[in-house]
Each structure stands twice: as C-alpha cells, then as structure tokens.
Structures
1.
Amino acid sequence: MVLTARINWGRIIVWWSLFLSCLMPLLWISYQAWTLNLGADPAEEITDFTGTWTLRFLWLTLAVTPLRKLFGWSWLIRYRRMLGLYTAFYALIHLLCFVTFILGWRLDLLWNEVTERPYIIVGSLAFLLLLPLVVTSTKKMQRRLGRNWTRLHQSVYLISLLALLHFIWQIRSNYLEVLIYGVILAVLLGYRLYLKLRTTHLLRMSKVHSS
Amino acid sequence: MLIKKPDSIPSSEITSESVYLQRRQFMRGVGGLMLGGMSGLAHAVPEYPIDADLPRYPGPAWLQPQIRSSVRNNDYSTSETPAPYFNAITHNNFYEFGTAKKNPAQYAQEFKTDPWKVEIAGAVNKPGHYHLEDVIKPHLLEERIYRLRCVEAWSMVIPWIGVPLAEVLKAFEPTSKAKYVAFTTLLDPEQMPGQRSYFSTIRWPYVEGLRLDEARHPLTLLAVGVYGNALPPQNGAPIRLVVPWKYGFKSIKSIVKISLEEEMPPTSWNLTAPNEYGFYANVNPKVDHPRWSQATERRLPSSLLDPNRIETTLFNGYAEEVAGLYKGMDLKKWY
Ligand code: HEM
C-alpha cells in the first residue's frame, strides 16, 4: 500500500511546541495573579506585562522575513501567521486588562482616555489596525486577495511604529528599555528598506544595460 | 532582599502576640501623654500588623526611644484605613534605586542611613552641618495618617511619624530674607544604582522646594518613621518630607540639605519636563497631566477584582487647611 499523504511528525511537533510556548507568558502571569504574587499594584503589573508581550510578539513576527532571507531559514514562514495571531491575541488581553483591572469598566473614563490621551490613541489605533489582518489571515483569504493581501498586510509596519510610539509616550525618565525595542525595530524595518532599495537599484541597472 | 506578598497571617499568630502588643501599646505614647494639654496629641501610636516574613526597620538606637514615645495627632490624621505595610514598603517611586515601583524595595536594603548629616544653609542665623540626631532630638515626634497621592494617579493612606517642618526650621532661625525652602537628596552613585544609569533624564541629585508659607504650614511634615517604626531605606530614610496636598514627587526623600532661599529654587521634575510638572504640583482633579487624567485615582491596595478607583479631590482633600495659601492664584497656570 502506498501512502499518498505522509504525516510529517517533525512539523507537527514544532508547530505544537511553538503554539504552547507562546501561551507560556499568559499562563505564567495568570499563575502569578492566582497566587497573589503580582506585588502591591497587580493591575499595573499585569497590564504592563501583557503590553510588553504584545510588543515582543509583534517584533518576533516582523523578524521572520529578515531571518529567512539572511540565514536562508525558509521554513520560518510557516509559523509567521501564528506569531501574528498571537500578537493580536495578547493585544486583546492587554486591552481587557486595562479596561478591567485599571479602569474597572468605567466606560466614561475609557472614553476620555481613548479620545484625549495620545499614548492611548496610538495604542488603540495599533489594535484596530491589527483586526483586518486577523480577519484576512486565513489561507483562503490570502488566495482570494492576491496582491492586495500583501499590500494590506504591509500595514503591520505602521502598526509597529504606532506600538513603539505608544511605548515612547509613556516614558517618565528612563528610556533604556524603549531604546532597545526601538533599535531592534529599526533593524527589522531598515533591513526591508535596504532590500527594497537594492532591488530598485538593480532594476534600474538592468534597464540601463539593456537599453 | 526579596520581598514577597505574604499569605494572610493566621489568626493564631495574632492572638499569641496580642498580650505583648497590648503592653507595647500601653508603653507607647506615655511620653506624649505626660506633656498633656496639647490638643489632638493625646493618643498612643498603635501597633501595626506586620507580617512575620516582611522586614522591620527599627532605626538607629538614638531614634528608637523617640519613636516609642511618639503620639498620634488625630487633628491632622485621616480616619481612612492605612494601606497594609506590605504595599507601603514595596511600592513607591524612588528613582535613585530604579524606575520600577518595586525597585526601591529590591535595591535599597543595603542603603546606609546612619550616621547621617543634614546641612542647613542659606538665610538662617544658625547654618551648619548637623547630625540628624541633633536636628530631631529636641522635638516630640507625632504620628500623622495622611493620604498620599502620586502624580501617576494612584494613592495610599500612610501613617507617618515625624515633626512639623515649621518647628525644625524655627530652631535654625530663618532670617527675613527667606522666601523659599530648597531640599536636596543624597548624591551617592555608589549606593544609588539609579544615579549611575546613563539613560535617565533626571539630573542628580534630586532637588525640591516649597514656598516658605507652604513649608511652615502645620500639615508639612519631616518624617523619620512609618507604621510605628523608623523609615525603611526604600521609603526615604532617614529623613524625608511629606506634603500631603501635593503630588508625591514633592515629598523629597533621604534629605541631606535644607536651604532657605530668596528665589524660587529649581525642582527636579520641573527641570526634566517643565510642561508636565510645575513647582507647585498641588493635587487638582481639574488640571490634568498632559499625558493622563488626574480626575480619579486608584486607591491602593486594590485587587484585580476591584480597582478601587475613587474621585480625586482638590488639594488631596486638604482644601480646608491649605486653600488659603493659593488665594487668587490661577491653579491651571501655577500647576
Ligand atoms: C498593538 C497594540 C499595543 C501594544 C503593542 C502595546 C504595548 C504596550 C507596552 C509595551 C506597554 C508598556 C509596558 C511597560 O511599561 O513595561 C503598554 C502599556 C500600556 N498600554 Fe498598551 N499596547 C497596545 C495597545 C493598547 C491599547 C489598545 C490600550 C488601551 C486602549 C493600551 C493601554 C495601555 C496602558 C494604559 C498602558 C500602561 C499601563 C500602566 O503602566 O499603567 N495599550 N502597552
């Protein structure tokens, strides 16, 4: 008997390992909350923690392309969607932590925050812009949208800049942490810019030669 | 030192200590009671519940008897319940020891706060470098339970022990030239990791200031203790300011210099971000920080089930006592 579709156990193990690893931060902070180990201001601790992990998942998602191209790790692309969806998942939890634990669902306060505070405005914008990406993340949508899918998903660059701004506008005195995330983002986006400039340059060169 | 949230104290432990506590409570305040006649002072400082696994800070030997005989000043104390000791000693801003609110409790435990000298300078008849002991010894220590409102929109109720700043200033005889009081925190990068950071926008040492009438207001306290003990190093030991109607950053910690000035002195947060932090920094729900609202605050302790959000009040609820200081002033302009 011939197996037409062979099960790739290696791939399944990697997928599940990554899937479960990405849940670890959430499990960890939930455990800390459950055992009352979040310190004297648990609301702020949990909101900062989930915000930080949203940013990390976004940066990880953006790291896939550069790592693929620089090291030839083409298999990474298989896990990009999962990282992107986890970014949105953590962003949602972060938002819910803020509304529940810090604002206590006082919608009047939420309205004031969302309309008046620049750092909340850019954070909310980043979150809203993530939603269309979540909705169009399926393979089916990707096929259906074709080139437009790529164009739509390039909004992730804007989202990353908004997320960084959200972080920058919370600085009170120490900017080391923000600087580190900023430098990493500069490398991730800078690499893409470099690739783009190189291809347009090569294109122009080839035109010059062929004429 | 690692300070973790303790589990609630088993009730058996409380009862086994209660006889001892009652004795202590009786002994306490006897000194104050004997002074007699002073209004609002005739109340012993209670013994606060301190979880067995949390550190206690008895303070230097010279201070201990004075703290023992301190008395509660009920006239100037709120009847609200003080925050649990755990919250007060593990959650505060003291950027000299790091910018996260848990950093001071983590990194200040080895901070050496005795012996300590305070320089008294400027427009006074008796300037000089004084041992803290000589500054504090002549005065009766009072306990004052104050609301403390942080500019970041959280607050706690804290039982301080200290002496009104007015009394301390009087001892050094300010001259008629004195219009302001300037304060300076210790500069010691070896002990204070925050002062070694290359990424801080605050210029060290931390400085603060008050107008002379604010400094002489009976609510303004120079604190040397909390919760019936000496100040923990993370809370600004051995001596700090407490100005309850202003945002917490005005209440400068670990003071090494008090100077009476003719001109308005510079203040650290104002130098760092002048559009966000003014010289006055009076608590005011109607004047927002440019980046967040001051209309409400989270009163700690709060749990994940209840943020304990309350309305912020003008001058942190001390309007009756201090509004007169700012008569005719535009509080939006002088934020
Ligand atoms: C993609 C979206 C978002 C990202 C990447 C993000 C990321 C972050 C980060 C990195 C922090 C700082 C953590 C720290 O100080 O250590 C933070 C804090 C915060 N975020 Fe977000 N955030 C996002 C969306 C939002 C949204 C939609 C809201 C609310 C509407 C929000 C509200 C807050 C608040 C209130 C804080 C400060 C909590 C505190 O310290 O009191 N964020 N966020």
2.
Amino acid sequence: MSPSKHIVILGNGIAGITCARHLRKGDDNIQITVISGESKYFFSRTALMYVYMGHMKFEHTQPYENWFWEKNRIDLVQDWVEKVDFKEKKLRCQSGKTINYDQLVLATGSKPNKFGWPGQGLKGVQGLYSKQDLELMEKNTESGVKKAVIVGGGLIGIEMAEMLAYKNIEVTFLVRESGFWRNILPEEESEMVGRHIREHHFDLRVNTELEEIISDGSGKVKAVKTKSGEEIPCQFVGLTAGVSPNLDFLKGTELDLDRGILVDHLFQTNLRDVFAIGDCAQFREKPDKNRNIIEQVWYTGRMHGETLAQTILGKPTPYKPGVWFNSAKFLDIEYQTYGQVPADWDESQVSNFYWEHSSGKVCFRMLCDSDGRILGVNNFGFRLRHEFFDKAIREQWSGQKVIQNLDKANFDPEFFAPYISAIQRKYAEENNITLKISKPSFFQRLIGAKL
Amino acid sequence: MKYIQLIGLTLFLTGLLAFTVIPFLGEYTISEAIVLDNTKDIHQEKMKELLEPMYDKEYSSSFSFIRELNQRVDDYNSELKAESNWDQVIWDDYSFPLAKASLSSPVQNHPWLFLFVSIGLTVLGGLFYNFPKFKGEPEGIKNNGIFHSKMKNRGWLGMLTGSYLILFYVILYWFPAYMVNLVWMVEPLSLILSGNSASQWFLYGLIYTLAILVMGVRMFRKYRGNRYQQIRTASVMFFQTAFAFLIPEILVLLNKPYFDFKNIWPLDYSFFYDYRIETLTSSGAIGMFMLIWGILLIVVGVPLFTYFYGKRWYCSWVCGCGGLAETVGDPYRQLSDKSLKSWKIERYLIHGVLVLAVVMTALTIANYFSAFSFLGNVTNQLHSFYGFAIGSAFAGVVGTGFYPFMGNRVWCRFGCPLAAYLGMVQRFKSRFRITTNGGQCISCGNCSTYCEMGIDVRWYAQRGQNIVRSSCVGCGVCSAVCPRGVLKLENGPEEGRINEMPILIGNDSVKLNA
Ligand SMILES: Cc1cc2nc3c(=O)[nH]c(=O)nc-3n(C[C@H](O)[C@H](O)[C@H](O)COP(=O)(O)OP(=O)(O)OC[C@H]3O[C@@H](n4cnc5c(N)ncnc54)[C@H](O)[C@@H]3O)c2cc1C
Ligand code: SF4
Ligand code: SF4
C-alpha cells in the first residue's frame, strides 16, 4: 500500500521524535521523515555534559538503538534545511537535496542567546546547546585554558561550570541577579545553591554583568570586563544567558514569527499543514494561566509532540498542560519542583512553609493560597514523588493534608535519612497543631537512620 | 594525586610484582617418600615406578619439574589408552601435591614475610589508595572521567588487568602446580584457621575475601552520602568474610564438614553430589542440619525472600560472586552491553545453564538412589564437564577475568543458574520493582550506562514504566546516578507492579501509552 501522506518533521529533538513515534503508533501507513543537521540519530541534549565529563560516551545519550528507526519505518535524514518553500511544500537542504511534504512539523529547538556583547565572536567564546557546541568546547578547552568565565547563572551555566571543573579549570561565574537563578528560585534556595557552588570552589559573582570580552590581539579571548570595570583574565568564556527559538532560516517567509514560531493550541501556524512544537514554538495565547508562551524544557517538548501527533492523526487535540513540574541538578544537589513556586510572592495572598536541614543542602518549601490550599513545592537534596503532587495539586489539597501524607511522597532510596518526619515536625510546630509523625520504616530503624 | 594515594599505588604495585615473582622461587626435588605420601594407595606402586628416574635430582624451575612429571604420567596413560585399558589409567592429577611437597624454597622458611611482601603490600597499598579517595570533595556521584580512563573503558590498562586475571584463573584452575610457592606462603594461616595444610583454594579464598574488603572500602568512599550503597557493601563484606571464608575453615578445625551456609544450589552445583551428601549424612546432627538448611534455602528461602525483597537480597547483599562484582567489579560496571540482542543471548544462555544444572543434579540423585546401577560412571563425566565448562571456565575465567572487557556481572547475567531461578521468582511473584517518578525522566542515559546487568533502564524510565526485570540484582546504582531522582527500588503490593501500558503524567491534553 502506498503511504497515505508524507509527514516531514524538521528537528530530531525530543519534540520532533516524540511526535514521530506517536504518529507511527497511531498510523501504520503514513510516511514519516525526520530531518536534522545536528545528528542522524536522536540523542538526549540534557546529557551533553556527561559526555564531556566522561560519565558516558556520546552513543549512550541515544535513547533508542539504531535499528529502532528502520523497524518503525521512520526515515532519518541528516542535513541542514536552508529554505522552506511553503507554497510548493518543499524543503531545500544544504546538500542540494529537496524534500516534499504533505504536512510539515517544525521542531527546530533553540539556540544560545548572544546579546551583541563586544567580542562575543572571539575564539574561546561559546554557548552550549548542540552536539557541535560540545565538540567545539572539547577543542577549545583541550589545552592552555586555566581560567574560564561563565556569563549567566542558569541551568546550562552551572552545567558548564561543572564541566570545566572536571578539567581543573578555575571558573568565575557572573550572575546578573542578586543570587544564583534568583529569577526562578526563592531566596533561600538560591542561597543554598550559591553556597554549594562556592563549596565547589567556583568564584560566584552576583549582581555582576558582562560589559565586553577582550581579545588577546590574535582573535582569542584573554579576559572579560564587567560593567563595574573589573577585568577578569580567562582563556574561555561560556555564554549561558538563556536560549531563544531557532528560526533564522524561516525569517522573511510567509510564516508568522515573533520570538518563536507563532502557533495556536493545536500547534498550527498561520499556514495550512505547517505546525510547530517544542522550544521553537510560541503560543499566541498562554496555554494555561500559569504557563509561559514559550516553553523551553524537555518535558514540554515531549508533551507537545504527543499532543500534536493526535491532531495530525485526525483527532484534533488542543494542548492542555497538567500540573507543572521540573527538575535539575546543581552540582551534587538535586532539585525537583511541582506546581507553582515563583521566586517571589505576595505575602498577603500566599502562605509559605520552609524547612531546611542543618547540613544546608536539603530543603523543602510549600506555598499555599490564602485558603490554605497547596500551590506548589520545591525540594532540594531529596526526592519526592511526582504522582503524589500531581494529585495533591490537581485536587487542591490543604497544606496540612499534604504534610500529613508526606511519607507517601517520599522517593528517596531505602535507608536514607528520614527528612519527611523532620518536615512534619516543623510544620506541626509552626502551625500549632498535632500531626501524626510518620514512623521510620523497619529498615530505617534497623540501621538507625538519623538526620 | 594525593601523596598517600601515590604511596598506596606504589605499595600495591610492589606487592603485585612480588606476588607475580614468588611462584618462580626455589628448587624441586622429589623422592620416593614424597610420592608415597601424596598418591592414593592404588596408584602408589605405579607412580613410584614412573617417577623413579626423577628421584633426588634437583630441578631449578617449576617448568622443568612439572613438565617432566606430567610427561611421565602422560606417556604411561597414553599407552593404556591406546590399548583401551581404561581401568588402569591414572585419572588423578598429582602434580599439585607432588610439586608442593617437592619444593624447597625460601617461602617455606619465611612464609609470613613473603605473605606480607606480596598480598600484605597489595592490601595495604589498596587501603592507602582507597581511604583518601574523594577526600575534601562534597558527597555526590563520582563518575568523572570513567570513559576517559585507560582502565575503565577497555584501554590498555583494562586489557592488561583482564589478561592478568585470566592468566591467574587459568593457572588456579588447571595448573595449580605452578603456584605452590604461593600456597606455602599461606600454609601457617591455614593451619591456624582450619588445622589443615593449605590448598590453592585456601589461597584463592583469602585473596578473594581481601579483595572484597579492600575494594569495599573504595565503595564506602565512592558512595559517601548513599546509605543504601554503603550498607549493601558492608553486607557483602560481612557475608564473604564470615560465611564464605572464616566459618567453613573453623568448622573444619572443629572436625565438622566444610560448609558455606549462604551458598545455594544450583550456584553451589555440587551440593547434591554423592561425596558431599555422604560427608553430610555421616557427620551426625550438624551434618544433617547442614543438609536440611541447604535444601530449605532452595525451596523456602529463595522464593520467600525474593517474594518480599526481590533477588537483590541475595545477589547484591549476600552472594560471594555478587560481592566481588559489586566491589572489585564496580569500576567496570558501565561496560555491560545494553543492546536488545545481548538481552536475547542472555536469556538463552542463563536458562540453558539452569536446565543443564537441574538435569545434571536430577541424574546424579537418581543415580545415587539406584546405587549407581542407573547410569554408572556417566554422572561423573557430566560433573567434570560442568565443573570445567561452567564452574571454572564460565564462572571463573570469564566471570571475573572479563570484568574489564564485558563488565562486572558477566557470570551473574549470562551464566548463574541460581540467578536464573531467583530471576524467575522476581519476575513473576515478587513485591519488588523499580518505580519511575512520573514524567521526570530526561532520557539522559546515566541509569542504563551504569546498570551492570545491561538493563536498558532508560527505556522504561522515559515511558514511566516500572522496571520488573528478572535480571535486576537491585544494586541501586541506576537510582543513585539518576540526576533527576527518577528511580526508586521498592517493595510493595503486587497490584499495579507490572504496568505494560504506562501513562506519563503531566500532560492533560491526551492520556497516552508512552
Ligand atoms: C546543555 C543543556 C541541558 C539541558 N538540560 C535540561 C534539563 O535538565 N531539563 C529540561 O527540561 N530541559 C533541559 N534542556 C532543554 C531541553 O534540552 C530542550 O528544551 C529540548 O531539548 C528542546 O527539544 P526540541 O525537540 O524542541 O529541540 P532540539 O532538541 O533543539 O532539536 C531541534 C533539532 O532541530 C535541528 N534543526 C534546527 N534547525 C534545523 C535546520 N534548519 N535544518 C536541519 N536541522 C535543524 C537542530 O539541529 C536540532 O537537532 C537542556 C538544554 C541544554 C542545551
Ligand atoms: S536496574 Fe538498577 S538496580 Fe537493577 S541491576 Fe540495573 S542498575 Fe542495578
Ligand atoms: S538516569 Fe534518570 S533521567 Fe537519566 S535516563 Fe535514567 S531515569 Fe531518566
């Protein structure tokens, strides 16, 4: 049987690949082609740092074995698309090849922000987003780099710092805000991470902005200058001040663009048969009151892909994100969040509960609304169960109910310290109530696990 | 590298060098008395006659001595074989006891000194090297540079280590006569513990135990901040030292049968062999207790504990092979093959070995109860085939020697019949599973990379499916290395344990099976 239609997905990241997989699951007959210039096979971008640090080889970051694609008849093309002819429904590739489509899914991801800093094009100055960036970073730091500066204190910045530390490179971290990731994290959490960054001997400079990057005369970086006029010598600069949608090659076409590719809740662009998902998509209207119009994380890319596949398969499915969740790891401290915990809040609207372990590396925060119903939690240094909070937040449990049942949310390995009971104790104390404190498990008692 | 670690490394290498050189020391002189002392009654006359030309000659190397000795016996045997005179053939290999008795070497005069210079220094060096590891660093995952290492990523150091281990096993199993110096070195220790003269197996047991202890210390350092890993490591260190090494020796000292209370058939494949059953049944109440204990472990212990805790209760908490894999083998865990193909091979091989072990044992028991009228000598040949191919070649040479090539659980994954049995219980009737944390997986691949059993953990994690695999030994390392807190080893109700069609939470647009 000849294929009913040809779906071309541009971009083999989590968004594009998830879409392709679900298309194949739902329809045996369509032709699916996935194009990417970066790599033939899907890999996990989030794991790039581990390749640099020798935790894994690049092949380990590929979630599916190579035979998977052929078996599922998902054609892979490694090429850069230079031009899209939306009228003719045709893509022109760098190699000269053209590819026709019936429906096109744009899942082109992001690129690192560069704010036009003087010297941002120098040798030894780079961002980290793609496989090619990783290779460049390996080359740039191969030898002769003693000091590095990271500009921008976000998730990729701290990963880059950790990577450089692996090569014994001294890292100075320039952060514009008053604390690490302070635009996302509340003060205590931001400080906790800041302390941990310093424990790892990174020179964290808060309230510091980049002015320019200085050349050594031969086109290589030799120092950076901050807004306050200080010069910091370095042989490598990591630019990690966020990412923005990757759509330069689409500019000047009939496709509606803003910061990202504009889409509605079905991921449809202004053009028929053209969709956009993942990091590169920008919703014309927020998909939910708590959500941004551009979502640049792994999980949302996956959900966009899952959802769009349904629409293409003939079941129009608007994007309805559930309870927000995210996670990250700051050097050795794991972080998870469920629901809404903004960096700052209005004390009159929101009640706040915060517990921190004496080690200063474990903490828990819960915010509730004025009626005492849970809004969200942050947990650092220990693990909590997604399913539990998905339910609690969706069903708007009271803060007390959440804490009372917190032992069911524990996701730490067996024998780990019983943080849950410490949290419950503090909550009971602060609120002057009596709570049934969870008993340590048989195993915890067996080995006398203590805080 | 820290100063102390450098000293440690030097001591370790010195000890290893000494250990390698010691077998070449001394001279060999055989006499009639030696032959009579070390051969069975039925062979004494013949051996005396065969070896007569060697008497009182001094052989300056083990090679010339053992070669000539074996040559003489072999020549005689091949004549008999040519005549199909099977009854007369000397099947016993006397080279080890004869070489041991014929040796005169400085090792015999100063065994403690030599023991210290070789094994002692490696242990000391190992401890010096391991104790300061990651000192001054915050607790956390310590996998930096593993795939850039010459040792841990099949580089030349790994190849060299693997080759050394393989050579050691080959000599230990098939040419122990070449290591009599090393055995003399541990003679006094053996006399203290069991009152018996040392065999190559005593030497091996000692090295094995010390290796687990020294590398166990490394585990404590590496997994600082992870109580599960530390307690588990303490457990294998304890079971190896007490149950596998000390208690059996002490039993012998007390004139009781040698018995390892934690070894379970069919890993302990000779448990039902006639000579062992006879030893136990002729050893009074304690012998009977051992026999019943061993059988209870098989029929009650394995299913019960595996039902409650998964096979990990044995494989990564108690077992000696597991103990070595989890300590000495830990640096190589990332080398296991994760492909679907190797999973297929694994299932054929491991169940094949299980079937072989069960059939062999069934025949042995049937033969025993029919007073050998059923199969006569055939079971003996089966035993020697199994002992050679599975017990020695697979479990020893491949199982350990291949650590640096194929990861630390080659035997446990592809060969161990007990693991196959435990695995079936774990897969079909157990409360154990690895739970995945909703939609939190970022498909990074750390879990799969560091799974020593070659389980593609990520495959399940990224679709939110519980991991219920017969091969999972519950080492907990996937959970430890996961940077997003996705994996948790849990025992819980059987309901919902196997979720073939998982749904990833977090997306309200559709409810999809991942
Ligand atoms: C270092 C790093 C760490 C991260 N860690 C996390 C994390 O821990 N958690 C989290 O939630 N998110 C993380 N993210 C963000 C997350 O990886 C992204 O949100 C996600 O990968 C975006 O997926 P995507 O499918 O939209 O696009 P991408 O993964 O960017 O895929 C787009 C693909 O399209 C290709 N492409 C684009 N244009 C063209 C063209 N013209 N021709 C051919 N090919 C083209 C690109 O080369 C790329 O391969 C991280 C990102 C980075 C860089
Ligand atoms: S799945 Fe996890 S716990 Fe099981 S063997 Fe692999 S790494 Fe160990
Ligand atoms: S280590 Fe954790 S985040 Fe990474 S693939 Fe495995 S389960 Fe997913």
